[in-house]
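The material for today's practical consists of a large collection of protein records. Read left to right, the backbone structure tokens trace the chain's path through space. An example says more than a description, so a record of this kind follows:
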Amino acid sequence: MQSLWTTFPPQLVLAGSTLYVSQGSIYGLDTRTGKVRRQYAVSGSAALAFARGTLYLNVNRHPDSSVQAVRAHDSWALWSYQVAGPLAHAPTLARDGVYVSTTEGVLYALQARNGRLLWQQAVGGTSAAQWPTVAALIGRVLCVGAKSGPDSILSAYQPADGALLWSSHLSGTWFSLPIGAAGRVYISDNNGEVSAFRLRDGQLLWQTAVAAEVQSTAYLSMRPSSIVLLPASSPEP
């Protein structure tokens, strides 16, 4: 019998000696024993990130979605911000900002301390952009890959005010989390293409086909050779 749906594994976030698991509720597990230290109920599906004692949650619940901040040690709700449309992936965190994107192609920047809206921007400068990847902060640039009409784009923003710095075309429709180092940003797509762009202006530096289908995220080696590691697989026969 063919399965009609797939159950995805829970998201894991490690914070010191506590492992946070998002599966219906948010569970904080003791990394040594596996026992549940704390639990936070969530009304909807949640993707999470952790920084400086706070859990930041992207919570999707039809018909609305919200970004929430929860104090980790006692599950105290610090703030909540409602957005229009489903949220994509987990929040991206910087020192003073929380960055989230919706599947409808809107990028939001919120103040980490109180959830106040700092700015919002259509991904790629167009309302046609959809299904963006989670934004990645690379150096002082916020990078987002998204589908925009018949094309796909990698866009870069100024984190402070959301100003669009540049946009470059991509070949795929689904993307890895952008990663970067040494003035470059790397991204892979579902067509098996790995692309490298210059971070300051978005110029394409190279593009390499590694597989017929990419099913995971690219990783950057910290060795001097700066090798980009890409889990990939070909389609099943």
